[in-house]
Amino acid sequence: MPKLWNESIEAHRRAVRDATLDTTAALxxxxxxxxxxxxxxxEETGIGRATLYKYFSDVEAILFAWHERQVTGHLExxxxxxxxxxxxxxxxxxxxxxxxxxxxxxxxxELAALLHRGEHVAQAQQQLHSFIRDLLTEGxxxxxxxxxxxxxxxxxxxxxxxxxxxxxxxxAAVRRLVTVILTGLRPRA
Length: 189
Description:
Elements: H1 3-31, H2 38-45, H3 49-55, H4 59-83, H5 88-105, H6 110-115, H7 119-141, H8 151-162, H9 171-185
Helix pairs in contact: 1-2, 1-4, 2-3, 4-5, 4-7, 5-7, 5-9, 7-8, 8-9
């Protein structure tokens, strides 16, 4: 097959997949997880049910694929935030703040409970942990952050503390949470 043909087939497949993911997410947001069916998704996306089943076995598979795409997007965003800032301490502050806001905006729904048991979440958590640990290591080496606790351990503390962002009422409270965490990361006097 010519290269152009392969590229257009792949582009078509990506477009169908993306439309399916986006439509399913919108339907779930509007009607709830239990109300969405493969028939409704096929109808809303304008593709046949048989075609839809070629891509996904059921609604849950679509939701997991959508969530995996969201998680990947969050990790890419955090990398962009990190790369836009100066020293390690400033990068850490920017990343913790950005991650806390993500936590604040995506919390406590039936959908979140369903999706957070996927393997992709464990992999993303490990990536995020390494990401934070590396920033903590750089900051400690520069003398900006404490070095009396292993960066791996501090990264775990930070990530667990940031889960509180999902239950605070305002973005101002999220910023205060990040400030408290950063205060605990400063070197001991």
